[in-house]
Amino acid sequence: MSWSRASIRRFLLVLLLPGLGAVFAGELWLAWRTASEAADAAYDRSLLGAVKSIDSSISTASGGLGVELPYRMLEFFELTAQGQVFYRVATEDGLVEIGSANLPAPPRPLLTGQPQFHEGAYVGQAVRVGSYARELDPPLAGPAGPQRVVIQVAETLEARTGFRRSLVLQSLARDVLLMVAASALLALAIAWAMRPLDRLRQEVDARDPQDLTPVDDTGAPAEVRPLVQAINHHIARNREQAEARRRFIDDASHQLRTPLTTLATQVAYAQREADPSAQRGVLDKIRTQLDETIRQTNQMLALARADSAPPQRQPFDAVALSEALVRQWWASAREQGVDLGLDAPDGPVPLQGEPDLLREALANLLHNAIRHGGAGGHVTLTVRADASGAVRLSVVDTGPGLPPEELARAGERFFRGGGGALPGSGLGLAIVRTVAQRHGGQMQVAPGSEGRGLAVTLTLPAPPTSEAVSG
Predict the structure, then answer these.
(1) What is the SS3 assignment for 134-203?
(2) Which residues are CB-neighbours of 320 under 8 A, at least 6 positions away?
(3) 3-class DSSP assignment, residue 304
(4) Helix (H) or strand (E) holding 213
(5) How far is the C-alpha of 113 from the C-alpha of 381, rounded, in Å?
(6) What's the gap between Cα 197 and its chain centre?
(7) Residue 344, SS3 per DSSP
(8) Helices and strands in the chain: count of H runs, count of E runs
(9) Residue 173: which residues within 8 A CB-CB, separation 6 or more?
(10) What is the spatial distance between Cα 133 and Cα 148, in angstroms, rounded to a whole number?
(11) Fold (CATH) for 10-165
(12) Which residues, including other chains, have CB under 8 Å from residue 84's CB and lie 6 or more apart?
């Protein structure tokens, strides 16, 4: 199983338990060192005591080196050491030597009055040796100058090793218990920490499929709250899409019921009509009704796309888009006797957005303006960019316009002005407003120049400065 799909509990345990194991191993090594130091400190003090006892028994009064060994003390020391004990007393030059010869020499030169302890091997056994040197007073007869005597006592390591092992085993038992307790507490802590996620899972699983209300994050830990907020954000997007689908179905049923009923009536009338010229008149009306129904359907699809389609932004030139639209609608305007013009800068005006949706919105404005402008009217598509980089796209006509009391409702779905004599769906301005909002802008509807006609303006925010203009 990959790490990305592994259980969080398992992941934490796999991550933390080796760490605890490493701590346990480090603790065991530290316990061994501590036990070794403690054993050496304790037994070295006993070894030094034996050295001092022998030292106190050394005499040079006779001119030679004499030692009255403290046998009882050595027997007690050997009993305490639980092994063999060796000793050596010799002059530093080795000319006089008493006791066990060839005991391991100290690794460093002996300083007068300072004991030195080291380990070595003697007669095939590992031993711990304590060495001590002091000046002879009075010195031995013969050589002139200061003389030193070296005292060494060695013991085998059975007792020392047993003591060390006992301390390590005690530490090991303690550490194993601590490891088990820490692992159990870690597992309990992880299980307790995962409870909010378990509650969240149960709450989401228990929800009705149609329930799109936000998940309550009250009482959720700070680490879980961003997850709940992300889930709520996703639920909100799904709710918006569901609402957009519901609106589309409502709009379709609202808009298509009447045209389809009219078409059915007209077809039935044409079937009953025997006069070919009368039939042709009915078919012309059916064609006109079909064209209007197709236009309404396309408007509803455009509105649904503007409501819920995922954004696909790209840089483009507002002037180039406007020029193409004017060329597209120029023939239709000419047929109806409308003067269609473009007022735009000579250079490009960059925008960042969805050019297809913006083209659909401006096409709706031009269609409405040309239809309502009438013969002899004027329609102008204006492109302007202000100092901040925001772009204004306006369609101004000299038609009948809207009464002041209806301007505020312009852009509502299915709203048509009271004075409108031409057929329509009331969706054109709704599409324009939705597209403007989708681009982070807004739509304003106001009377045209000198109070005549209507001026609809889309104000869109400036594009990022790093974006290039796409043709």
Answers:
(1) EECCCCCCCCCCCCEEEEEEEEECHHHHHHHHHHHHHHHHHHHHHHHHHHHHHHHHHHHHCHHHHHHHHH
(2) 348, 471
(3) helix
(4) none
(5) 110
(6) 17
(7) coil
(8) 10, 14
(9) none
(10) 6
(11) Beta-Lactamase (3.30.450)
(12) 78, 125, 155, 156
Can you read off the two tokens belonging to residue 60? Answer: 């040079």
Cβ atoms of residues 187 and 13 within 8 Å: yes
Per-residue pLDDT of the chain (471 residues; tens, 9 = 90+): 454 455 676 777 777 778 878 888 888 888 888 888 888 888 888 888 888 888 888 877 676 777 776 666 666 666 666 778 888 888 887 778 888 888 899 999 999 999 999 999 998 899 999 999 988 877 776 666 678 889 999 888 888 888 888 888 888 888 888 888 888 888 888 788 778 778 877 888 888 877 778 887 777 777 778 888 888 888 888 887 777 677 666 666 655 665 677 777 777 877 777 778 877 887 877 787 777 677 667 666 666 666 666 677 889 999 999 999 999 889 888 988 999 999 999 889 998 888 888 888 888 888 888 888 778 889 999 999 888 888 999 999 888 877 777 776 665 655 555 455 444 555 667 778 888 888 888 888 888 877 788 888 999 988 776 444 444
Phi, psi (5° rounding) for residue 385? -125, 130
Q: For residue 362, which amino acid is it? A: L
The whole-angstrom separation of Cα 336 and Cα 346 is 28
- What does the alpha-carbon distance between residue 333 and residue 129 come to, in Å, rounded to a whole number? 117
Token match 């019921």: residue?
Answer: 257
Domain ranges of the chain: 10-165, 206-310, 314-460
Fold of 314-460: Heat Shock Protein 90 (3.30.565)
